[in-house]
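User: What would this chain look like folded?
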Amino acid sequence: MKITVHANEKSEETEIIICCKKMTPAIENIIATLQMINQQMPVTKDGVNYLLDINQISYIEALERKTFVYTEESIYESKLKLYEMEERLCHNGFLRVSKSCLVHLKFIQSIKNDIERKLRLTMKNGEQIMVSRQYADSIKKRLGVI
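Assistant: Here's the prediction, encoded as structure tokens.
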């Protein structure tokens, strides 16, 4: 791979051009990373590709080897693995709450202690998400509860 950067003071905006022989998973990953920097995430719904603003995402869940992205209005699917999304979103208000779920902290409405040191999060849209014991303390600290 060859990387070339041309700095030009007369440029009005930054433009990134990718030239490749064919689209590969590695190039798709580079594009996804660049889109995340721009606060957008590539997702699909009903076979249509979208660029979703990450501020619309309330939580992300991994089920049966697929990654689902939830907004208050809709459900999308992502090609990225949950751990890849966590790496990219951890600095944008997202926190892992279980082995299979990331939550956008700004969408949490309330937090309640549950059985066996687990927590129950109620999201602004009324959905409830369980926080496993392993992640309960970090959620409490991040929300300023303890």
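The helical segments are 25-37, 82-89, 133-143. If you want, I can go into more detail on any region.
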